[in-house]
Design a protein that fits this description.
single chain, 348 residues, alpha/beta, Rossmann fold, Dihydrodipicolinate Reductase, domain 2, 2 domains, six-stranded parallel beta sheet, 9 helices, 33% helix, globular, disordered C terminus
């Protein structure tokens, strides 16, 4: 039986409590938050859970084996560090920490103590994303030429991080998972329209080499909520719209072909192929439940962690590079490659 505490009961913490509580081999002992009204709400929903405002009480309790942290980004590192130093496994919501230095220290601390660190990149557990991975890996799209991602909405405005740090980690984690490699450089531009120094609109471009690009647009200032990604391959194209209730994935049998040879300019013609559009069947599961299950199995059964600290570190490294580019007016920033992402997971 895994005994856990969840720290942070605002927007996302209650979802963690709900999902971790649904497993027979996991028990939530504490819900921790500095807001008494949030603790009262949690107590009303889960009377058996102890509610505390003192984080140190959670850290000092030897009965707690693991802690899930769903607090502002600036607190991720000190809280996770304290948990690890007191022998507790850690689940951290995205992004893992505010710097690669902090991420690396958490990984090192966990490895020294034989503990697990998992980062909450929930979308890589999505049946839709797993299906896209299966489609790409079997070569149905051909070579991926570029990826375009849009994550737009009106709010919610954050005070401690800009829109890129808030929304782009979702798209970055998906792209790393699907392409199986890290970018070699990044450039980013954006503007802070409402709060000085906190960009509410950004456009990030990732260069993977050999002509492969990914473009990520993030905004808190859009009238419509948009959650879509386009994957353009040499054989086919795929559109993933997470807001679609049923047909979240559509595959377009479209491509452009150049003639293999020609003798004169007059003989040169592009060939445009237009085929069918189809949507594959998806067996839907709640991604967060699968993520929580993986964390439990990592600790109790030694299972492979689907979104470990190294994975979270790669996302933060890209965000750091994009932040440097943002401050330099969109200049290209070279990224120090950590390691190729090796993800050989069966599609759900």
């Amino acid at each position: 039986m895994l005994t856990m505490a969840v720290v942070g009961c605002g927007y996302w913490g209650p979802n963690l409590i709900r999902n971790f509580s649904s497993f027979s081999d996991c028990r939530i002992k504490y819900a921790c938050d500095s807001d008494a009204s949030r603790l009262n709400h949690m107590k009303a929903l889960y009377p058996h859970i102890e509610t505390v405002s003192d984080f140190e009480a959670v850290v000092r309790d030897p009965d707690v084996h693991a802690v899930a942290i769903a607090t502002p980004v600036c607190s991720h590192y000190p809280m996770a560090k304290a948990c690890l130093e007191n022998g507790k496994h850690v689940f951290i919501e995205k992004p893992m920490a505010a710097s690669t230095e902090n991420c690396s220290d958490l990984i090192r601390t966990a490895e020294e103590r034989g503990l697990r660190v998992m980062v909450g990149h929930t979308f890589i557990f999505s049946p839709s994303v797993r299906k896209i991975k299966e489609i790409i890996d079997r070569g149905a799209l051909g070579d991926i030429l570029y990826v375009s991602a849009r994550r737009l909405n009106l709010g919610l405005f954050q005070k401690d991080i800009n829109v890129m740090w808030d929304l782009a980690p979702h798209d970055l984690s998906i792209i790393l998972y699907l392409l199986g490699q890290v970018p070699i450089s990044v450039n980013c531009q954006g503007q802070a329209h409402l709060n000085a120094g906190i960009e509410d609109v950004t456009v990030m471009t990732l260069n993977f080499g050999k002509g492969k690009l990914a473009i990520i647009q993030s905004s808190w200032l859009d009238p419509n909520k948009v959650r879509d990604m386009t994957f353009v391959g040499s054989r086919r194209m795929l559109v993933y719209n997470d807001l679609e209730p049923n047909e979240k994935i559509k595959i377009f049998d479209k491509r452009v072909e150049t003639p293999p040879y020609y003798d004169t300019f007059a003989e040169f013609h592009y060939s445009y192929h237009y085929g069918d559009v189809y949507s594959p069947y998806l067996k839907m599961h709640e991604p967060l439940k699968l993520e929580c299950q993986n964390f439990i199995e990592c600790i109790l059964n030694g299972a492979s962690c689907e979104s470990d600290g190294h994975y979270g570190l790669q996302v933060v490294r890209i965000l750091e590079g994009a932040s440097r580019s943002l401050k330099a007016g969109g200049a290209q920033v070279e990224l120090e490659t950590l390691r190729t992402v090796q993800i050989a997971r069966a599609a759900a």
